[in-house]
Protein 1
Amino acid sequence: QVQLQESGPGLVKPSETLSLTCTVSGGSISSYYWSWIRQPPGKGLEWIGYIYYSGSTNYNPSLKSRVTISINTSKNQFSLKLSSVTAADTAVYFCARDPNPVVFGDYWGQGILVTVSS
Amino acid sequence: EIVMTQSPATLSVSPGERATLSCRASQSVSSNLAWYQQKPGQAPRLVIYGASTRATGIPARFSGSGSGTEFTLTISSLQSEDFAVYYCQQYYNWPPVTFGQGTRLEIK
């Protein structure tokens, strides 16, 4: 059974860089599209971007200048970095896997709450 | 960016009754429309893709319809486990894919 697990700091200071990792177990990361999606508390979903196992990426234009998604196939992990964070970046961050780059139906992580506050 | 608008924001329906949720796109998305169900504290779950195709494991009481700019998710006979928030998502013109703001389906 494939499982995705997000990890990283739950609290980040304004202007700093948010860094999260999604660890994949029960299957290889060397296939599929691997995505990040976030959800501010009590609000809707926002697509952040994806990385294909080959390393190609695609980002939400509204976040593109601040986002980097990378993959480490040897560790079966992929990561998200979001720079220059503000309170508006406070959200639950989900990682997800799918054969399709923009339909998220395969597997999701449980999500991790990241709060941006000094 | 395509804006997705869902209505109503909250829908109150009794168990066993039919629920109809709406989603409108600011421009045509053809049939590139998905619906997700999200329960409190959980990740979203894909319900419908391609506007009308049920995802794996989704019961037949869930159906999707529409194309272009107007879409509907219908749950024919509500079960207790169906009460949740539902989001529509377009994937016709991306990046970015965009989601609606959600419809909360609550027990009447």
Protein 2
Amino acid sequence: AQSVTQLGSHVSVSEGALVLLRCNYSSSVPPYLFWYVQYPNQGLQLLLKYTSAATLVKGINGFEAEFKKSETSFHLTKPSAHMSDAAEYFCAVGRAGGGADGLTFGKGTHLIIQP
Amino acid sequence: DAGITQSPRYKITETGRQVTLMCHQTWSHSYMFWYRQDLGHGLRLIYYSAAADITDKGEVPDGYVVSRSKTENFPLTLESATRSQTSVYFCASSESGATEAFFGQGTRLTVV
């Protein structure tokens, strides 16, 4: 079975500060990993994905994430937060090589940007 | 336009009524999913489908029924709505069960 743990249901940073959202996963096989963003009253939008190529993955809106196998982590970062980054962020894992039941999602982290 | 469309966006229904949430995708993706999103629980899988006429239960299937007679449609039916089914429902599709999923805008359902 696979699972995802997102540390911190709420993270607050100042505008211009570093954003760090933590995600740890467990998977019995090499995983595919994803970060999604959800703005109020909208669906989930893919930010970035890791599918066993480069371990440092760049996504949209200046976000990036690094896959660290030894730490089973896939933390999301952005060097400088913007007010428009305020949203809910979800980490997800998929099983490479199959898994018809789709991605397993973490419970989400609400990112708050302080002016 | 290509994409995944859910309808209605908002629905209020009474306890005991049957209600169907619609989902339509234009990518011809094989896989489709229904999730519910509740505060503190994140996204929980209700049902999924690997192809037309193939469906299976997810984490929280009780009280829900799905069908998939056509690849592009995956309706979710609440046979007898209960207050505990008040939630935001998301439909998603993907090329495979492990690759990125594409989400609809969601349906906010309130059962009174």
Protein 3
Amino acid sequence: NAGVMQNPRHLVRRRGQEARLRCSPMKGHSHVYWYRQLPEEGLKFMVYLQKENIIDESGMPKERFSAEFPKEGPSILRIQQVVRGDSAAYFCASSLLHRSGNTEAFFGQGTRLTVV
Amino acid sequence: EDKVVQSPLSLVVHEGDTVTLNCSYEVTNFRSLLWYKQEKKAPTFLFMLTSSGIEKKSGRLSSILDKKELFSILNITATQTGDSAIYLCAVGRDDKIIFGKGTRLHILP
């Protein structure tokens, strides 16, 4: 039973290129969260998705960032025209929403994006 | 605005000491409070707390929630160098999980 899988683990992009980060949730999980972590800082919420549905994208920058979680395949976080300030670790977490509404999220290993 | 505040931001103690990490929150539609340990990579889940006054324990780690005063503590007794990590507190709502900035704990041998 594999955990949350993220790839690539490391990604280097030049300014202006596109970055695509992938996240496959744990088996049976239909909820995916994306977080960004800057050095020496905590995790900052970006977006919460269910299959084929964006539930909350209040943490996503309005421009250049998008996320999807298709019916088949991994969740994708896409950053267009990357800038140096996008350099960070991006973590994906998946969860199984319990009937009570309580949930714990399990994290992938993260993708470290470096923009040069 | 919803917020989760952890203190202290960093802590250095000697092996064998006991530490208490604090987490206070102001979050609407509270569902649960979560603790994670982050070493070099992915945060790993420690505890989920939903009810006040019920202590959860796992080895040398324990945690308790006070929903009236809106805080939780994480205790680590007889610390070891392997406990060095960032400890993240988070609050689960219906729609998302909100994280604090974390407490960076360093255990000196």
